[in-house]
Amino acid sequence: MSVQRGPTDAAPPSVRFTPGQVIVHRNVRLGRIGWVRPARVVSDDERGLLLWVARGTPVVNEVSGDGFGMRTMPFAEFVTRGTALKHGTWDGPGVLKLHRPGDPAHSVWWFHDERDRFKNWYVNLERPAVRWSDEDGASGVDVTDWDLDIVAAPDRTWHWKDEEEFLERLALPEHYWVPDEAFVRAEGERVVKEIEAGDFPFDGTWTDFTPPANWTVPDLPRGWDRGFCGG
């Protein structure tokens, strides 16, 4: 099945978020939670939705039924063990995440080192983000992480990441959530051209970002496990 990216002149999103708001950032695959990360909204404007995940943020991750992460074993074994959800924390430095307008099939992340200095860009190839907000006040963004990623250094040299995992999982299509390998790779190659050209957001924007001093680490919001928007 082919997945189509939305047009670049797509209508403005029907759900808007406000700076400082805590929303739920979720990876949803085959109707199950892959991971959940509370995030604070930095901005939501013509450049896209910019989110901040702070060090120490509570997270939830899908693990095998006996409590092991997907990367600790072959995928063919993981799918035989059932699934469970495991609570933990985001132990690394804070991460910025940008969902760009026009429904592209990726998000761009800014990773930092242990001294909170910009380290590299990370292109997360994924099903275009779906925003949601319900009558109980819960709100968030749902994606499906397609596993293949791109890491770009400050000098804009780049490389694919997790390609072996991507290929391993493609070999089990009845259990995998990537419908179209060619589309995922084409989306990555499209972004690589922007990286090499130094186009926004790979032009230095937000590489010096620091969160406001009054932003505390958010709790896991109510509604983090509500019904999914796609995936």
Percent of sequence in beta strands = 35-45%
Q: Which sheet architecture does the biggest sheet show?
A: 12 strands, mixed
Oligomeric organization of the protein chains: single chain
Name the helicity range. Answer: 10-25%
| Structural class assignment | mainly beta
Q: From N to C, what is the helix and strand string?
A: EEEEHEEEEEEEEHH
DSSP strand count: 12
What general outline do the C-alpha atoms trace? globular
Mean model confidence by pLDDT: 92
Specify Rg, calculated over alpha carbons: 17 Å
Q: Please tally the helical runs, counting DSSP H or I stretches of 4 or more residues.
A: 3
Instruction: Please give the alpha-carbon distance between the first and last residues.
Output: 14 Å
Q: Which spans have pLDDT < 50 for at least 5 consecutive residues?
A: 1-11
Q: What topology does this entry show?
A:
Layout: E1 22-29, E2 32-45, E3 48-53, E4 58-64, H1 75-78, E5 83-89, E6 95-99, E7 106-112, E8 118-126, E9 130-133, E10 139-143, E11 145-152, E12 158-161, H2 163-170, H3 181-197
Parallel strand pairs: 1-10
Antiparallel strand pairs: 1-2, 2-3, 2-4, 3-6, 4-5, 6-7, 7-8, 8-11, 9-10, 11-12
Structural features:
231 residues; mainly beta; twelve-stranded mixed β-sheet; 3 helices; 12 strands; disordered N terminus
Q: How would you describe what is shown here?
A:
- The chain is mainly beta and 231 residues long.
- The chain has three helices and twelve strands; from the N terminus they run ββββαββββββββαα.
- Strands 1, 2, 3, 4, 5, 6, 7, 8, 9, 10, 11 and 12 form a twelve-stranded mixed beta sheet that branches.
- Residues 1-11 have low confidence and may be disordered.
